[in-house]
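Reviewers of the previous submission asked for a worked example of the structure-prediction workflow described in the proposal, so we include one complete record here. The input consisted solely of the amino acid sequence. No template or homolog information was supplied to the procedure at any stage.
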Amino acid sequence: MTTAYTVSKKESGKRLDQWVTTHLKVSRKEAKRWIDAGNIRIRGKKTFIASWELREGDKIDIVSSEKRRSLRYLKVYFEDRDLLVVEKPPGLLSVPEIGEKAESLLDHVRGYLKRKYRESKGVYVAPLHRLDSETSGVMVFACSTVGKQLEDLFREHRIVRRYVAVVAGPVEEEAGTIHRPLEKGHFSGGRKSRVSKQGEKAVTMFRVRERYSNATLLDVELQTGRTHQIRVHLASIGHPVLGDKIYGATLHALENRRQPARQALHASLLGFRHPGTKKKVEFRSPLPKDMKKLIDQLRGI
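From that input alone, the workflow returned the following structure tokens.
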């Protein structure tokens, strides 16, 4: 959904973030998030500069999206007073994004806890990490300040995070490690990350599980957790994730069959030391039906 505005004479000379703060009735920090997310367009072009000086007559579009999947029920793997471990299906946001009015997994987690504990005002819940909208798999949320300590382990890369990915082309190596720094930003084609010497350290490990005539099934493990890390790293070595609309490509051998409706990437395992009990725990998520079907198709080529 797009809402159009025209800058008035009185508003001329204002900074963009000030204008957004006034019109959307949000804080300056929230206004900057709208701008950073690419939801503000001036004269038809996305603008990421909060200090941009507006002129009388400027046409400003505020863009939001509502085309997202809803969730019928919440699949819970683990729950105690500190943590809630759940399954995120593909096509659902992990947490609300600026400009998005659709539901997110965080909304469903809040709703689940409110119903369970009959809290009408609200409950404490905090996201500790994210999965891309099209990525499926296991996620963990904090339900207490003790649980939120797990955030430090994510920041220090002391969480075991494994994924299953189907990538384009035959990967020749049995296993490998990708050491390529990643820079976060707003780049062409909707990219939010790219390989760059100016970027932050990023390390991705992979191992071949199965090879097909024109694709490969990989087990992938993150050593760091940068934005779109797996997708960018695999694309950078010539093997983008199948179905990835930003960094990837379609698979020609499947043109007469059904192409992947989303990127073939699944968060299969999450392991860490529980911040409350101090015990090591692991949670596994089985491959979803759509990825199983894709693999069956590839086996038949």
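The longest strand covers residues 160-168. We consider this example representative of the routine output the project will generate in years two and three.
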